[in-house]
Amino acid sequence: MNAREFIQQQVAQAHDLCDGAMQDVTAEQFNWVPPGLANTVSATFMHIVGGEDMFIHTVLQGRPRLLDSAEWASKVGIGAPGPGRGWEEFKTRTLPLEPVRAYEQAVRADTESYLATLTAADLDRKLSFAGRERTVGGVLVMLVGHILSHAGEIAALKGVQGCKGLPF
Predict the structure, then answer these.
(1) How many Å is the maximal CA-CA distance in the chain?
(2) Mean of per-residue pLDDT scores for the chain
(3) Is 39 exposed, middle or buried, given 0-12, 13-18 or 19+ CB atoms closer than 10 A?
């Protein structure tokens, strides 16, 4: 197995775990506001998908995020939380689950297409991200960790609502 194939497998497994956390989530669970300072499932999920959109499109390819296009901005109806954008808005807004899931599928399709083109030299290309120099491969490793950590948050939020967090 080469490095590209390894990263493709890691991203696919992270997506699978996120799918498991989102399995059977209803619109009510998606938008439920937990007590304290915890975020909604909708905020956490939009952060996962918006983060992947930013990592793949903006950071690695120098292109605008899909979410910044007129098509996805109007369908989803909200930006992704993260640096420079707060999470509080998600506690007062109801997000439509299906358009957000469709946005997720579009981001994933672009991610898979991008990953399939990578060469060893591409993975070693240096760029500046999060305040330091990294390689494309290093940014993709960060993406996997990002997806996994927030998928765990979604599983916990489902558990607090009395639902099974992960399917296993």
Answers:
(1) 47
(2) 93
(3) buried
